[in-house]
Write a structure and sequence with these properties.
With about 240 residues, the chain is mainly α. It contains ten helices and no strands.
Length: about 240
Amino acid sequence: MEKFKRFDIFIYFLIVGNILAMVLESHKSIKLKFESFFHYFEVISISIFSLEYLFRIYINYKNKQWYGVRKYVFSFFGVIDLVSILPFYIKEFVLLDGRFFRILRLFRLSRIFKLGRGSKSLKLFIKALTAVKNELYFTLFLSLLTILFSASAIYFLEHDAQPEIFSSITASVWWATVSLATVGYGDIVPITLWGKVFASIISLIGIGVVAIPTGIISASFVSEIDNSKREIKFKN
């Protein structure tokens, strides 16, 4: 157990090092000066993360056979472990467009989630999300339906006044999403009377659309915390 704990600590430091390297690599002057170091550090890190992934599969197979392997591979951290290494191999062994490669590099950020492997709070949060997944699916469906309705309505209200901006319903989805999220960038605004009235109503509705999933997740998280405290008291 002590060896595993030391290994986990080493992995945590390696993850922090990867995140720091990614931040520094975004500076052109630093990247040009230490390009070879960043490359070899990435290769070594991927090798260690790959071995860690295979090792965890082996441990789960040893404990619970293929059921354990399946449970780990499709778990939250199992997916994170795979996503954190897969883009490197895709980039190395598959011919891809350069733009697609740049998108894949974003998945390096997923390594930060590996830091939460031993966090009880994160596990409670994931458990809380799992407990209300059906409610979250419904709120997601409701949000998408509201966005589609808002985009359609603003298109018909503003198309004649601003044909270039509200050129189609799909083009209006950006305005609908920003308005319902109550962000309000102000890059696209209605100029007609009825468009402004509708925008005011949608902004108010947006508060509720955002608040519903937030309330569901918060309530579930608090409930899981209470259950966890009761279990600890029961064991003691």
